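input
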Amino acid sequence: MSSRVALVTGGTGGIGTAICQRLAKDGYKVAAGYNAGGDHDKAKTWQAVQKEQGFDFDISYGDVRDFESCGRCIAHVEETLGPIDILINNAGVTRDATLKKMSESQWSEVLNANLDSVFNMTRQVINGMIERKFGRIVNVSSINAQKGQLGQTNYSAAKAGMHGFTKALSQEVARKGITVNTVSPGYIATKMVMEVPEEIRNKIIEGIPVGRLGLPEEVANAVSFLASEQSGFITGSNLSVNGGQHMF
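output
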């Protein structure tokens, strides 16, 4: 298993970091894709901190909204670590507004970063996976793709589109040793969520049956499961990691 190479987009973020760490513990060679507004020093600092914690990650810059930039990101990883066997499409942004106030740029930026990105990355690794007869693709969506969310028509639409992509592609490559699945987290205790005022955070928690926020490590566990060789009979699925907040 140690020869397998995994690329995690948005790998330097809260959930991305947990995914990178878990996949490294699973024995994979892991690359963290990043954009960070082009702040390469920030990514290098993240890499150094991870190394201090015992994780030797490659980092690879790429703007997931841009097909050619994604190609360069993938080429760097494959030149450094080898062919990509596992792709985790985790990168994304939010630009919240009610539709009556949403600008075209707010719509386009979210669709490009959250949905176009899945095509931009996956299209450029899928042929190699087919040739090698093995691949694991996991798309990180959201509870709000499943239930909708006021002020997030752009985000909910993009994240729902990710699972439509999952279901269609999974059928195209099912006989090639490749699985394609979605993980849909609920409210996770990332830095961004923990910066929400405590009063609002407590109201969110009241709506979660298990009575707490999820942990990034719990999302990473789900990704790890779907990325494993033992999950070869699971494809086209959507695994909810939301503490029971939305069930269907």
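quick obs: The longest helix spans residues 153-173.
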